[in-house]
Amino acid sequence: MPTEVVTADKTADEVSGLDALELAPRPEKGDRGRRIWNSAWPKLLAVAIAIAAWQLVVLSEWKPTYVLPGPVDVFADLKELATTPDFWDGVRLTLTRAFTGFLLAVAIGTVIGAAVSRFAPLRAAIGSLITGLQTMPSIMWFPLAILLFQLSESAIMFVVVIGAAPSVANGLISGIDYVPRTWLRVGQVLGMKGLSKYRHLILPASLPSFISGLKQGWAFSWRSLMAGELLVIVPGALSVGARMQNARDLHEASLVISYIIVVLIIGILIDILFNTADNALRKRWGLTGN
Question: What are the transmembrane regions (predicted)?
Answer without folding.
Answer: 44-62, 98-117, 129-149, 155-179, 254-274
